[in-house]
Amino acid sequence: MTTTALVVDDEVDLCRLMQITLTKMGIKSDVAYTLSQAKSYWQENDYDFCLTDLKLPDGSGLELVKHISGSSTTPIAVITAHGSMDLAIEALKLGAFDFVNKPLELPRLRQLVESALKVIHQDNAAKLTPERSPEQQMLDSRLIGDSAVMHPLKNTILKLARSQAPVFLSGASGTGKEVVARLIHDLSPRRDGSFVPVNCGAIPSELMESEFFGHKKGSFTGAVADKQGLFQQADGGTLFLDEVADLPLAMQVKLLRAIQEKTVRAIGDTKEVPVDIRILSATHKDLNQLVQVGSFRQDLYYRINVIELKLPTLNARRDDIPVLAKHFLALIADEWQLESPPLLTDNACARLQHHDFAGNVRELRNVLERAVTLAETSTIDASHLGLPDFDSHQEVITSASQNISTNKASISNASVSNKSESSVADSIQDNSIKSKIETDSTQQAKTNIHPYRTTIQHYPSMNTSSTSTRSAENTEKLANKSMASSLDASTINQVDEQDSVSKAVNIEDVATGQLPAQGLEHYLQEQEKRLIITALKQTNWNKTQAAELLGTTFRSLRYRMTKLEIAEDQSES
Ligand SMILES: Nc1ncnc2c1ncn2[C@@H]1O[C@H](COP(=O)(O)OP(=O)(O)OP(=O)(O)O)[C@@H](O)[C@H]1O
Questions:
Q1: Pocket flag, ligand 1, residue 470 (CB < 6 Å)
Q2: Is the distance from the beta carbon of residue 349 to the nearest atom of ligand 1 less than 6 Å?
Q3: Scanning 61, 386, 507, 537, which has its CA 20 to 30 A from the CA of 403?
């Protein structure tokens, strides 16, 4: 079947050029010279896509964008006068999938049409599969959750995947921003290109320019060979700027320029190279606030935040906890080569559903990994979860805050909060809801029982009572009494046991009041590693005995050794 397009522009020559290009690509097209003509053609025919100028004699092409994207899924792209970026952004927000600047460059036009064709083919294939489309299946298998807040989110992801618009993913740490970014890429016409994730906070500022744009051999000391930058690696694909709030101001300027001009120049090079990338970005920080205080450039914010997608916290979608838990247990079983995925008892499931997941989905996974190491059998009970004792007072507060968080999430999620829609969301957030939300955070702060809020660590705190029972049992087994206090260091990441850890590990360097330069988590991991190696040495690297000496299970020890990269051949060290 021949693909058909509607071309809308009042410049006759330009229309002819576009028609020739489309014909060469096997697309049959009609031309409309005015907005009203375009509307009536659209009404009478069934086009596969539309390409419209924004400035028409009888109105704005934006009206056509609104009309078409409001009533169909047909891809529409816009042609903008060079430099009118604001209008292009407005069109993307209204649902245009891409834009091309005047004067028209034919390679860029062809690129845009090819993206449209991919979307059209995808749609046609979906029509032929009455069940769930392959895209829907990919989405459901990778973004786990079927709760009320997840439905609009998933629909939005499918829509955003078709567009070339920059998307800014906001949401607390561990809510799945990177999962969503990868999905947007893998579901998009760019899926054959690379997905290049970059943690903007992890690159030393002096290396940033070279990392992003590349360098030529000899351009600075240490540049021993030509190096391709991240922009070029993502050419034809997607560049994911994670932790974008951490970009230094100087780099923000350079990045903005590269994004706007769609070209990059490597350090030491004289020529600009065109790049075709889609930008996705994310941070758990409040970027808007950083703009207010001047640490993030407003123009860059505006450019990357064309469409904002807010991810709900796990507390706002507790209904998803059982299905997420099942998903992670299957993954863990697979990774650890267990015979079958461990099962959660009803008690354990209920306990998880009442936990305050400040670390969101990532924390749930960590809790389960830990539970699998602690459980002796393949059944995980509430006691293996290592969560604080549950008290009904907390239940009341948590479920109250859950309702409020759900409100928050649905307000922010109901619409993909692009600028115009977020102002609607703002107006929905009337004062009473705002004050409830404030109460919610205050109450959550009061019931802040979770170490994610107070320390940097991977694992939740242990139930103190079960820990002490375990310690008592293990004390009997101890060959070396002096190791008794070290036993609890196997649960070194646990806040409740900070005291025993302090006793167990060599803390002379911090006893003076000096904090470890490398940060708490790294410090604790170092100590954990030392204790495990000590126990392994004392038992001649017999893991079963070492586990016993440390008061932990064999599986737990094996897991920790992998995590801390303790190899068997360290026996000589
Ligand atoms: N809906 C989900 N379905 C399956 N796994 C998920 C989901 N959400 C998050 N995860 C998992 O949770 C962990 C954290 O997710 P991710 O890294 O995407 O979060 P994030 O919001 O980018 O966190 P951060 O802000 O700290 O970078 C990963 O292991 C990811 O696979």
A1: no
A2: no
A3: 386
Task: Give tens-digit pLDDT for 355-373.
Answer: 999 999 999 999 999 999 8
Residue that terminates a domain, selected from 287, 310, 333: 310
Most confident of 72-81, 305-314, 458-467, 542-551: 305-314
Do both 379 and 412 map to the same domain?
yes
CB count, 10 Å around CB of 509? 11
Query: What would the two tokens of residue 55 be?
Result: 């400035």
- The total number of residues shown for the chain amounts to 573
Reported as a single tens digit per residue, the pLDDT across 190-243 is 999 999 999 998 888 888 999 999 999 988 888 889 999 999 999 999 999 999
- Read off the amino acid at residue 403: N
Q: What Å distances lie between residue 500 and 455, 472, 486, 506, 523, CA to CA?
A: 17, 14, 8, 12, 16
* Residue the block writes with tokens 């120049």: 265
Which residues, other chains included, contact 237 with Cβ-Cβ below 8 Å and sequence gap of 6+? 185, 190, 192, 193, 194, 195, 196, 277, 278
In the reported structure, the alpha carbon of residue 182 is separated from the centroid of ligand 1 by a whole-number distance in angstroms of 11
Q: 365 C-alpha vs ligand 1 centroid, how far in Å?
A: 9
Residue predicted with more confidence, 561 or 500: 561
Are 429 and 338 members of one domain?
Answer: yes
Q: Is the CB of 144 under 6 A from ligand 1?
A: yes
Average pLDDT in the chain? 78
Output the CA 284–ligand 1 centroid distance in Å: 12
* Closest ligand 1 atom to Cα of 284: 25
How many domains is the chain partitioned into structurally?
4
Provide the 3-class DSSP secondary structure of residue 350: helix
Judge if 237 and 90 occupy the same domain.
Answer: no
Site to probe by mutation for ligand 1, drawn from 361, 369, 456 as the one with most ligand atoms within 8 Å of Cβ, is 361
Query: Is the C-beta atom of 178 inside 6 A of ligand 1?
Result: yes
pLDDT for res 494: 33
Instruction: Summarize pLDDT for 417-459 with one digit per residue, the tens.
Output: 333 333 323 332 333 333 333 333 333 333 222 222 222 222 2
Q: Is 281 in the pocket of ligand 1 (CB under 6 A)?
A: no
Q: How far is the CA of 143 from the centre of ligand 1 (A)?
A: 9
Please tell me the pTM assigned to this model.
0.70
Confidence of residue 390 (pLDDT cuts 50, 70, 90): low
Same domain, 482 and 406: no
Cβ atoms of 5 and 49 closer than 8 Å: yes
How does residue 488 score in pLDDT terms, banded at 50, 70 and 90? very low
Cα of 180 from ligand 1 centre, angstroms: 8
Do 244 and 392 lie in one domain? The reply is: no
